[in-house]
Automatic annotation (TrEMBL):
Species this protein is from: Araneus ventricosus (Orbweaver spider)
Ranges where the Helitron helicase-like domain occurs: 11-149
Protein name per its UniProtKB record: Helitron helicase-like domain-containing protein
Pfam families: Helitron_like_N
Top-level division of the source organism's lineage: Eukaryota
């Protein structure tokens, strides 16, 4: 049976962005001061108003720094464990019974992306458990996965 709990992730994500916007000085963003000075100078010369430069840290999922850090981590794992033996593509199917059974009235799966994401994540967790803990493909030394949305 599928149990769905309302999430406040959207609010949390917005709060993190607000915090980053308000605390750029405290987050060691001074390294970008030269870039900002150059942009402001060019904008002044071309009589253009500049916006505020916000640099999210690597802890902010989806930021360029986060993706670069993940890439570097993956390359370190490849150096240590060698090239991957298995590459899987796992896609979501909006016709999964767990998704369809969660629709109310005339709702369609595309009306409820929150349910689709939750079901996908639960099935992904089960797949990783089968591969890593139960060893359906053999012993797992290391694994990396990426979710594209």
């Amino acid at each position: 049976m599928l149990k769905i709990i309302d999430s406040e992730f959207g609010n949390t994500d917005g709060s993190r962005l607000h915090f980053l916007r308000q605390n750029q000085e405290d987050l060691r963003i001074e390294l970008y001061r030269g870039l900002l000075d150059a942009l402001e100078c060019r904008a002044h010369n071309e009589n253009i108003r500049t916006g505020k430069l916000i640099i999210p840290p690597s802890s902010f999922q989806g930021s360029p720094r986060h993706m670069q850090q993940n890439y570097q981590d993956a390359m370190a794992m490849v150096r240590k464990f060698g090239k991957p033996d298995l590459f899987l593509t796992f896609t979501c199917n909006p016709s999964w019974s767990e998704i369809l059974n969660s629709m109310e009235g005339v709702q369609r799966p595309e009306d409820r992306p929150d349910i689709i994401v939750r079901v996908f994540n639960m099935k992904l967790k089960e797949l990783l458990e089968d591969i890593c803990k139960h060893g359906i493909f053999g012993t797992v030394l290391a694994y990396i996965y990426v979710i594209e949305f």
